[in-house]
Amino acid sequence: MPLETKENSIFKVIGASSLGTLIEWYDFYIFGSLASIIGSKLFPQDTGASALINTLAIFAAGFIVRPFGALVFGRLGDLIGRKYTFLLTLVLMGGSTFLIGLIPSYSTIGYAAPVLVLILRLVQGLALGGEYGGAATYVAEHAPVHKRGFFTSWIQTTATGGLFLSLGVIVLTKNFLGAADFASWGWRIPFLLSILLVGVSIYIRMKMQESPVFSKLKSEGKVSKNPLKESFNHKANFKMVLLALFGATMGQGVIWYTGQFYAQSFLENTCKLDFNDSRYILLWGIAFATPFFVIFGAWSDRVGRKWIMLGGMLLGVIFYRPIYQVFLEDSDLSRVEQKDIKSVSAPVRTSMLMENGQDSLISESRQVALKNATVYTKIQSQIKYADPAKAVYFQPEVLKDKKLNRAVFWKFVGLIFFQILLVTMVYGPIAAFLVELFPAKIRYTSMSLPYHVGNGVFGGLVPFIATLIASFPGASPLSGLWYPIGVAALSFVIGTIYLSNKKPEHTEAG
Fold it and tell me: In terms of CB atoms within 10 Å, which of 46, 111, 281, 376 comes out highest?
């Protein structure tokens, strides 16, 4: 078969695999992209910051069960094949996402709302635990050995691509409906759209052929009879599982989720940027950085995977705190002087009953425009108690919905771009790295577990743990960064000492 035909064939495999994986990531991450709004719908209105933390905890729950999904679907993938296993994960993911968009809010069904969402997030996590290993293995087993990093790196773009798609759909929906309708009911639309995307992907995946490597194993009667036992009871293989986790995927996971999800949460909830601005910054950063997944994946075919991945971890350890310090300083408007103000709008006064149905929360907001083109909203709130014996409680003034001037906006885009560049370094080569560690008959199971523990547990918990740490008494807004920095530093040390830059023996096309 001519090389050109083989290249065309592998790109068809990549296209079919990537579309489904992209949609699964879209489904999984859209929840995190809407965390602040979902928190206000799932929990009582007067829970404040704890509503965000509780929502991030539900978001994190989907990550925690990913390793279990890796075990369940990894075993199926090694027993019955790659194709049908990640077809099943796609159906589970799409159905769960669609149902999240239908769940009533806390005001309608009380605490049943967060409980139902939690259950569906767990199903999402299980499904994603089986998806990635299947897609990466499927593509790797079609790819020429000497180009495995290049071809599998296309699958790596889908995780960031899914985030990009989720952000894009959210921004477009909000701009079309308006802020009020989007916050009221429009936030459900991105979840409901998932069912259409999944339908298209299922149709495409049904036409895919089984991996040639698995087909050969099956025809020769060499399919593993007990993938879990062979993966984790065999001392040498289990050693590679642990090395992959602590020397690579653990550090890769925290770099991924810090540079994209925690960055978004920090800009929106700590820096108090405008909803659209925080997402536009991330969208531009993702757009500029995404091609580097393929660049670093292809480069790893030439120079090895190890030092590219470890280099991304080390740069994160060094630069995270300086970057987030810039975010804080350049978005701090608390010291604005009167001479810097161009205009202040007339006050808008709102009053609403609190959960007890007696006390009232009264807020007065003004929009402030500065001479440097920065715009923000200043809110002064007070709680008026029904009991006349209680004095009115004045809450601290809040500055939010900050729209940055163009210079600062593009500066933030550059800082996000740099963080996602580190993501491409650690993530671009890792699929090929994991595939090459394990023999074909237990590859789906063996590679899925360290990947999903590293990403689902260590990485996926970054937004929740970092936000929680920063909320502790005496903590600073930057305190949460010690978690990803510490994990990345530990993984860098372990990887430096124990990882080899040479390809292991399992370098067959499957």
Answer: 281
